[in-house]
Amino acid sequence: MAAHDDWSEAGNSILAPELLAKVRDILECEPVILEHRLYAGGSAPLRFIFDEYEDFVRHLELRARPGDHLLFWGYSGLCRDDNIAVDAKYPDATGRTPRGGSY
Question: What domain of life (predicted)?
């Protein structure tokens, strides 16, 4: 931990019961997208989608380190049919894709 980063007990800790409850509440309604930024820029941000609270908690236990920055978004607020960036299908061996499909 770098002294110049002004560590404080007043910051938002993801282990605070009210923040964990907020994540749990969102997950009861929709998946969450997590961007996990590693403290001191150890690598590019990690990105995950969680459907289950227990999977999210397991991620914290196994991957989170002091100072990591965790950002959350509700999946359905961002991933909608009206803002798709690329819409494509995987072709068969001859390069054909179905016009329809049961999705």
Answer: Bacteria
The DSSP code for 11 is: S
* Domain boundaries along the sequence of the chain: 12-77
Q: Is 41 left (phi over 0), alpha (psi -120 to 50) or beta?
A: left
pLDDT, position 52: 98
Q: What is the pLDDT of residues 10-67, one digit of tens each?
A: 889 999 999 999 999 999 999 999 999 999 877 899 999 999 999 999 999 999 999 9
Q: Among candidates 39, 67, 36, which has minimal Cα distance to 50? A: 36
- Nearest one of 8, 59, 7, 13 to 32, comparing CA atoms: 59
Spatial distance between the Cα atoms of 93 and 99, rounded to a whole number of angstroms: 16
| Contact residues for 23 (Cβ-Cβ < 8 A; gap 6+) | 14, 32, 53, 56, 72
Name the token pair of 30: 């929709």
